[in-house]
Structures are given as structure tokens and as C-alpha cells.
Amino acid sequence: MKHVVSATEARIRFGELMRRAVESREPIIVERGGKSHVVVLSVDEYERLLKRQQQGDWRELVRRARAQVQADLDGRKLPLPEEILQQLREGRDEQPLALR
Domain 3-41 adopts which CATH fold? Predict the structure, then answer.
């Protein structure tokens, strides 16, 4: 849930806003004249956002994950999803009903 305060309230209760940002990991939006101007964040939350930004967009993450899977397979071919499902179904069908 976002918390919004006026600039005057932020100035008067800044220590409390800092504590709230740290304890709840909740961003606090400070407004002036009804417009959002700044956000108060805990350092942990700020560093998390920086790390996420440095990791790149989702396409880059997918590319890295794909490269890692290929490296882990070490030249072996990945079975098709249909083959994996078939194997799981066969394994399930071999179990006694009491174990399902």
C-alpha cells in the first residue's frame, strides 16, 4: 500500500517516516501542491531496485537463463515437453491408488 504525505508533514515527521520506510519496506511519496515530488525508501529497498536495474530487462534475464540451461545440459538434448509429461503420467499410473 502506498503512503502519501505532504511536504510539510514530511518535514515535521521525517524521523517517523524514515522508521516507517525501513520497518515496512514501504515507499512513502511526498507531495507538494498535490503533485508527487519525491519518494522516501529504505536503503535496502533502494539497493534492491538498483540491483534489479543492473540485471537488465526480462529479455536479458531470459537470454542468461537459456545460456545457463544449455551449459548445464552439456551438449545433451533437452526432451520435448510432451515426452516429459508422458513419462510423468506413466510414473503416476504405475503407483498404487493408495499413494496418489
Answer: YefM-like fold (3.40.1620)
